[in-house]
Amino acid sequence: MFNEVFGCKCIGIEQQEDVAQLSRKVLKKLNLDDDIKIVIGNENTIADLDYDILMVAAFAEPKERVFSNIWDVVSEKTPVLYRTYTGMRAILYSPVTEKDTRGFHKEVMLLPTGNTNNTSVLIRKIT
């Protein structure tokens, strides 16, 4: 999405090697492999990467640990965008809670419209 809309280079972090390989194959078929890279790791991997913005997937787990580790690494200037579920979808999928994002300030929350299922939330670290 970021690559398509904003033309920026992207790095996806995947914990499972087989899923990472599949993601790379899909990106190659779509001719996106020059702009989107997949690395093996978890949220701690971001400490070794160069980035301007972070996006956390709705399925990232365990959420409290993920956001705690992100807080340890990012600066107050780094925008962190996460996707979560609200409404009836929150019954099926674990949503991000206020407890998960302790130490962050919520700047914008975009509720889903149309065929979109995820709520997008922009947060920044506070100290």
TrEMBL record:
Which InterPro entries does the record associate with it?
Nicotian_synth (IPR004298), SAM-dependent_MTases_sf (IPR029063)
UniProt superkingdom: Archaea
Q: Which GO terms describe its molecular function?
A: methyltransferase activity; nicotianamine synthase activity
Is Methyltransferase found in the keyword set? yes
The cross-references to Pfam families, in alphabetical order and at most eight, read: NAS
Any Gene Ontology biological process = methylation
Would I find Zinc among this entry's keywords?
A: no
Keywords annotated in UniProt: Methyltransferase, Transferase
Provide the protein name.
Answer: SAM-dependent methyltransferase
The organism named in the record is Methanobrevibacter smithii (strain ATCC 35061 / DSM 861 / OCM 144 / PS)
